[in-house]
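Title: Prediction job returns without error message
Component: structure pipeline
Severity: low
Priority: P3
Assignee: unassigned

Description:
Job completed but the reporter wants confirmation the result is attached to the right record. Sequence as submitted:
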Amino acid sequence: MPTSALSKHWDRLAREPARALQGRQLHGFLRDAVLPFSAHYRRVFAEAGLTADDIRSVDDLRKIPFSSKTDLLPTPEEPRRSLNFALIPDAKVLSKRPGVIARALLTGRAKVKDELDREWRPTFMTATTGRSTDSVSFLYTQHDLNNLAVGGGRIAEIARVTRDERMLNMFPFAPHLAFWCMHYAGLNRNTFALSTGGGKCMGTEGNIKAILKLKPQVLVAMPTFIYHVLQQAIDENVRLEGVRLICLGGEKVPDGMRRKLSAMCAQLGSPNVEVIATYGFTEAKLAFTECPFTPGKPPTGYHLYPDMGIVEVINPETGEPVPDGTGGEIVWTPINARGTVVLRYRTGDHIENGITWSACPCCGRTLPRLMGRISRVSDFRAMRFQKVKGTIVDFNELEHALDDVHGLGAWQIELRKAHDDPLDLDEIVLHVARMDDMAEPALERHLRELLQASFELRPNRITFHTTEEMKVLHQVGIALKEQKVVDHRPKAGAHVDVRPLNMAPARAPQEANA
């Protein structure tokens, strides 16, 4: 079966046939694109004593050393280090390839030259947000933009968005994957899509006006921002009718957040709204989605694209791949990319229940799916609350627990140092806004009991705010991503724990996952 068969049957192949095709496509990708034209991977393969002939199956991937964001970050010696990961072709090498010669004879040299230029020349870029490290840029060629459009279109297809519907894209306008993925999704599906640019461009008021004017069936946004948009619409007694689907990205989406957004939509005149999450990262130049489902039911998992890349799940301690259905760190390898390319890229993201190849219970597709919660290793932070003992706090679980609290609206966790002294103890201040007319004393008591019982945390203060004050704290319309956890500890006291996930403290009660 030719390589094109993998794309033709991208959502219907069983595990073993799909992996066999992936192995062949991976081998050709390394042989024809990566090793001839990537300075970084030529060196890596040479040092490891590898050639493309050594990599002919998905299982052979384990021979390739891992890559990580550290490899891409600039250094004083190499300020443009990430360019070593860009595929920069040699025109002489390309011109001697039999396929290129044959095409030139059939269609003419000028046409082939233009086709190669479009395939290989970078014309676009996105960048990491730079929240934990320096921002890193990723280059795209027209080939990659086509992949992005196809991937975005698949999100819309899986989410059952039709060309007769209207979509409002409220992701922030920036060289940010989420915005451009959904921009191209609308173009690929031939669906009307208005991109507002989020809070920084039109503010919450402008986005409410856009919803009222466009009357979209689909809203696309970051969870915290759309929460503020819907809350302001409620405060203004606005009716936002006709919404059937909310598609979220850019942040974690706890089940509690899904339920809140669905309930808010019902209050605004759009009952039974389905809320789905997408998972993407700059290094993949793609994003993946769940099937639509009603809040309260188990999520269906993130549907991957086996014709565009290979996702491994590894034990973060040993680096060894784990069996299907086992949790671990997500590792990404593209098999159909140009521009900036990373192989066996360790994302730092932990998937709770690993990968499954079973048919999706919602759509029936036999795609590989990432199952369960996705959490960031960097969201495990070391805190010092006693003079001697340190505590590792899992802020992934903490976010899920807070979003699931009845009567709690927007919230923010602020980390501080006592007396602003880098050597003093850590403090936690919880900033909150009420909803559903919950009384402040009852909500504060519940929050303190929850944090103590599930996380052994005693916040130094719980401060109540208005909706507008929380928008200021979240930096709505200012920051690219709303700020739900802020670390105001002096740098000498700040620390991000990078130990394996199985060293976390006792977890909060589990929510339902597929």
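Comment from assignee: result matches the submitted record. The mean pLDDT is 89.
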